[in-house]
Amino acid sequence: MNFEECYGPQIDNVLKDSPVLSIGNALFGKYNNKMDTPYFLHMYMKLIEQWESFKIHNVSILIELNDILEYKANFDLKKLFEGYIKEALKSPYKSVKLNCVMNGSGFEVKNENYDLDKVGGKDATVQSYKNKTIILLFSEKGIDAFGDGVPLLKSNESNVYNLISGKKWLSIEYYKELLKEFYEDHIKNDRMERYLLKNTTCPKEWKGKVKDDPNILINKPEKKFQIDFSLYLRNNCSDTILKETYNDDGDRYDIWVTNTEQEVYIFEIKWLGKSITETGNFTVYNGDRAIEGAWQLYHYLTEANERGRKNPSNAIRQGILLIFDARSEDTEILYPEELVSTINLDLDNCFKLQPKPFPASSAHKHYAKGS
Fold first, then answer.
1. Are 314 and 2 in contact (CB under 8 A)?
2. Which pLDDT tens digits describe the chain residue by residue (371 residues)?
3. What are phi and psi of 298, to 5 degrees?
4. Quick one: CA torsion of 167, 172, 175, 177, rounded to 10 degrees?
5. How large is the greatest C-alpha to C-alpha distance in the chain, in angstroms?
6. According to DSSP H, which parts of 197-315 are helical?
7. Model-level pTM greater than 0.85?
8. 270 φ, ψ (degrees, to nearest 5)
C-alpha cells in the first residue's frame, strides 16, 4: 500500500486543524496567484491594527476581495472605515458590504451596499462559498476571514495571535528547534501545572507524598504529554500532524508528521520517574523504559525501511524518541550500540522536568514550614 492509500484519509481529516494549510488551500488558484499565505497574514495583521479603533462603533463591514491586480504592502483603510461607519451611524444601517479589488493604491471599492441588519459569519460563509472569493468580516469582536465557505481565521481563537505575532511557522525538518521551544515553554518548570502533582489540587491524603517528593507525576501523564506536544506542533509547525495513527502493519505511532515532500517523521513519547495511581500508589519507570521506547522505534524504522525498498513513499526519514524525565536523580541512559548506530534514529531528546522554583522572597517561608 502506498503513502496516499495508507495516510491520505487521515491527513484529510486533520487539514482543518492547521490554519496555514487552510489559508493556502483557499488562496490556491485565485487572483492569478498574486497572494500567498505570508502575504495574506501580513494583510490580516495590518488590518487588525487599523480596525482596532473602529470596533467600538458596533457597525459591521464585509469586504469581498474580488480581484488582486497588485499586492500593496503599505495600504491604509482607516479613511475607508471612517467614511462608511460615519454614514452608517447617521442612519439605521448596521452593516455595509463592499466589493473591492486590490491594486497599486490599496483597496478600491467597486460596489457598496448598506444593510439594516448586522452581517454575520453565516452571511460571509455563504457568500465566500457561492462566489469562490476571500471575505473579511469586520465587527466589534475583530476580524474574521473566510474562503470557499470555510472560516480561515476567527478573531476569538488563540491561533490567530500565534499567526500574527511574527512567530515563525517551522517545517518538521527543524524539529530540534521546535522541541527546544516546547520544552522551555511547557515542560521545564511545568509552568501550566499540567504534569507534576501539586499540593493545591491533589486529594488531602496525598499532600504528604507531594511534600516528600515534588517530582511526582500525575496519574497517566503520557496522555497529557502527547496531547500537549501534538497541539504545540499544530500551532507552530507548517506540516501535517497526526496523533496515534497506525501504519499498514498495525503499528501505532504516538505522533506522525509529514512535510510537503511526503517525508515522514515519527515521535515515540515516554516518561520516566514516579507517577501516582488512582489508589495513591506509584508507577515507577527508570532508564529501561527509555530503552524500550528506542527498541519500539527501531522496529518501526526497520519495517518501514524494508517497505521503502519496494516503495520509497513508505520509508520513514527520522524516528525521534522523546523522553520526559521527572526522576529525582540524574542517571544517564545507556542505549545499546545497535540503537545508537541506527542512522535515522534520534535518541538525544531527554527533557528534564524541574519543579517550579520558589521565588527568593518566599523561599525562607517554604523551608521553614518544611513544605
1. yes
2. 455 555 555 544 544 445 666 777 778 778 777 777 777 877 888 888 889 889 889 999 999 999 888 776 677 888 899 999 999 999 999 999 999 998 877 889 999 999 999 898 889 999 999 998 999 999 998 899 998 888 888 876 545 555 555 455 788 999 999 999 999 988 988 888 889 887 777 777 777 787 788 888 888 999 999 999 998 898 888 888 888 888 777 889 999 998 877 889 999 999 999 988 888 888 999 999 999 999 999 999 998 887 766 666 668 999 999 999 999 887 899 999 999 999 999 999 999 998 865 444 443 443 333 33
3. -60, -40
4. -20
5. 79
6. 207-212, 221-236, 287-310
7. no
8. -135, 150
Strand, coil or helix: what is 308? helix
Q: CA geometry: angle at 315 spanning 310 and 317, to 5°? A: 150
Report which of 236, 256, 238 is spatially closest to residue 247, judged by C-alpha positions. 256
Q: Rounded CA gap, 365 and 75, in Å?
A: 57
Please, which residues have CB within 8 angstroms of residue 128's CB and are 6 or more apart in sequence?
64, 134, 135, 146, 147, 148, 149, 150
Q: Are 245 and 259 in contact (CB under 8 A)?
A: no
Task: Report DSSP state, residue 120.
Answer: -
State how far the alpha carbon of 164 is from the alpha carbons of 20, 47, 264, 317, in Å. Answer: 12, 11, 28, 31
CA 99 vs. chain centroid, Å, equals 33
